Amino acid sequence: MLSLFACAEAPEEIKAEAPAKSEATPDGATEAAEEAAPAEEKTVKAGFVYVSPVGDAGYSYAHDLGRKAVEALDFATTSYVESVPEGADSERVIRNMARKDFDIIFTTSFGYMDPTIKVAKEFPGVRFMHCSGFKKSENVNNYFGRIYQARYLTGLVAGAMTKSNRLGYVAAFPIPEVIRGINAYALGVRQSNPEAEVRVVWTKTWYDPALEKDAAKSLLDAGCDVIAQHQDSPAPQEAAQEAGAYSVGYNSDMSSFAPKAHLTSAMWNWAPMYVKTVEQVRDGSWQGDQALWWSMRDGVVDIAPMGPMVPEDVKTMVLAKRDEMMNGVDTVFAGPIKNQQGEIAVPEGTSMTDEEMLGMTWFVEGVVGSAE
Known about the structure:
By secondary structure, the protein is α/β, with parallel strands linked by helices. The chain has helices spanning 59-71, 88-99, 113-122, 147-161, 176-192, 209-221, 235-242, 271-283, 312-326, 354-358, and strands at 22-24, 30-32, 44-49, 76-81, 104-107, 127-131, 140-145, 166-171, 197-202, 226-230, 246-251, 262-268, 291-294, 301-303, 337-338, 344-346, 367-368. The radius of gyration is 20 Å and the shape is globular. The protein starts with 21 loop residues before the first strand and ends with a strand. Keywords: Signal.
């Protein structure tokens, strides 16, 4: 996981909404009808593979909003397959897309990494973009966003709102991506409330609403009064509202699922990155063996509007920190930072490098639970 990502230049703002020009295809994908393009223009055919249902919230929903921004382009058509398990099933779906002459295929889950690399070797003329992984090749790039920035901001909110000083975190898998997000959230929590702790429960799944809700309930039963998540469904949000606690969503704005509980969400906006990538395919500037790690300043990550229960002084404090990030100032993992054992892991006057953040396998002080 020690691959070093490079920041991309800020993309242009995406304002267009995707027209309704998709229809179901026999293999279970949803494929957009191709429109006639001028002879001098190249039509780019882009495919997307999702690990969970698109639905109306969560990880795949956020990716699909990005796909719709691509679909809105005059020179692009898109297709997607949802609810594809990691492993052999994903390899089959990715290979099926490659056989259909897609120009670029976006594989959006960490566990799609090895299948993507394998299929890419078989189809050197097809470009692939793998989300959150670290393996690359001449026709495979990695991409992700600095969601830890948004995590930190949501932590600032949560730390200010807890009464019990116990916050729960329903987490998917103990990989650097998830651990990094938990740590950023905990650093934000402790900045607002140095006495608070973040308790982590692992579900070992990306999308299982029933299991996610049960995990949230276990944290609520342990005295946690704010529930955050690295999961695809809003089930932890619903559990928090049912218990009269607060919640912090992920991937998309989850306020509609728990309006009485929802403080804010750490959100993805994949449209700028997806549109920029497809434009590069079209004009021939796309290059393989690259790693992209875009930031809040690039428009890829942000937080949802804070709920009405959040005091104005807290909102002002959080938005001031957000403004710093929008101006390119990122001090989330600046020292001094201690690990769970109370040892200095990041000395004062230093900051973690991208390589160190991307390979993070340890928890910061204030997190309760194992990072394994």
